[in-house]
């Protein structure tokens, strides 16, 4: 009997060691590099905002996500369901912040602006009537976000249509609505306050000048697969 108990303990210890090794080997999330300089989007978004937004705010989401995932792995290893549940809000907030911003940076370009082309433009005209109507609707939904959040152009896989939606805080679009994110506009105040103060509509109007429609088009093509 003692021999069997000893074997069980060794098996349990080995299992815990394996779980810890897997957790330790998990690749941590990292802050993505921008493909343009912080000042490249001026005068529409100034360098100070971009530097703080990317190197401070997004970096904080990444760091906190890594810490939270480590704690979650520990809770899994211990079978501590209460701790797992308690960590869910932090996973959603910091994970969403990382997901959203990783999309946001690629949605912007110093060579952006203008109008989309090809399949994306056809889809916009089909689902909104015209490019201008889509911009107006997305701007209205985005400006109307209460407090902090995001305005999104997303793809509905079930209907094959484009949709506009808003998400509060850092709630990720796909995890919240099921829509695949194509274009996001961040309306947390840290995204615009240093330049536009509390005039959110001016910021939303200006950001169209740096939208990377090629990136949005690529996201649509991937979403349709």
UniProtKB/TrEMBL annotation:
Q: Which GO terms describe its molecular function?
A: manganese ion binding; superoxide dismutase activity
Main location group = mitochondrion
- Give the source's domain of life in one word: Eukaryota
Entry's SUPFAM superfamilies? Fe,Mn superoxide dismutase (SOD), C-terminal domain, Fe,Mn superoxide dismutase (SOD), N-terminal domain
The record's top EC class is oxidoreductase
Q: Which positions fall inside the Manganese/iron superoxide dismutase C-terminal domain?
A: 116-219
Query: Where is it located?
Result: Mitochondrion matrix
Binding-site residues, Mn(2+): 53, 101, 186, 190
Which EC numbers does the record give? 1.15.1.1
Q: Which GO terms describe its cellular component?
A: mitochondrial matrix
PROSITE patterns xrefs: SOD_MN
Classification via InterPro entries? Fe/Mn_Superoxide_Dismutase, Mn/Fe_SOD, Mn/Fe_SOD_BS, Mn/Fe_SOD_C, Mn/Fe_SOD_N, Mn/Fe_SOD_N_sf, SOD_C_sf
Keywords, A to Z, come to:
Manganese, Metal-binding, Mitochondrion, Nitration, Oxidoreductase
Q: Which Pfam families match?
A: Sod_Fe_C, Sod_Fe_N
Q: Which cofactor does it need?
A: Mn(2+)
In this chain the Manganese/iron superoxide dismutase N-terminal domain maps to 28-109
The UniProt catalytic activity note for this protein reads: 2 superoxide + 2 H(+) = H2O2 + O2
Annotated GO biological processes are: innate immune response; neutrophil homeostasis; response to cadmium ion; response to methylmercury
Family assignment from sequence similarity: Belongs to the iron/manganese superoxide dismutase family.
Free-text function comment from the UniProt entry: Destroys superoxide anion radicals which are normally produced within the cells and which are toxic to biological systems. Destroys radicals which are normally produced within the cells and which are toxic to biological systems.
Q: What does the record note on quaternary structure? A: Homotetramer.
Query: Which protein is depicted?
Result: Superoxide dismutase
The organism encoding this protein is Fundulus heteroclitus (Killifish)
């Amino acid at each position: 009997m003692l021999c069997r108990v000893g074997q069980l303990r060794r098996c349990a210890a080995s299992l815990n060691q394996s779980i810890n090794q897997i957790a330790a080997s998990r690749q941590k999330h990292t802050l993505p590099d921008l493909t343009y300089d912080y000042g490249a989007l001026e005068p529409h978004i100034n360098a100070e905002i971009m530097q703080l937004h990317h190197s401070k705010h997004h970096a904080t989401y990444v760091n906190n996500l890594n810490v939270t995932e480590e704690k979650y792995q520990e809770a899994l290893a211990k079978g501590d369901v209460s701790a797992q549940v308690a960590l869910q809000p932090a996973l959603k907030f910091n994970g969403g912040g990382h997901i959203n911003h990783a999309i946001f940076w690629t949605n912007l370009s110093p060579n952006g602006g203008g109008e989309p082309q090809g399949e994306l433009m056809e889809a916009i005209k089909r689902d909104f009537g015209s490019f201008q109507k889509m911009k107006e609707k997305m701007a209205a939904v985005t400006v109307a976000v209460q407090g902090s959040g995001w305005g999104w152009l997303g793809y509905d896989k079930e209907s094959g249509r484009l949709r506009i939606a808003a998400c509060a805080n850092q709630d990720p679009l796909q995890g919240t609505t099921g829509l695949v994110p194509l274009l996001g506009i961040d309306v947390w105040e840290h995204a615009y306050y240093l330049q536009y103060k509390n005039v959110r509509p001016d910021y939303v109007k200006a950001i169209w000048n740096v939208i990377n429609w090629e990136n949005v088009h690529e996201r649509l093509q991937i979403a349709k697969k």
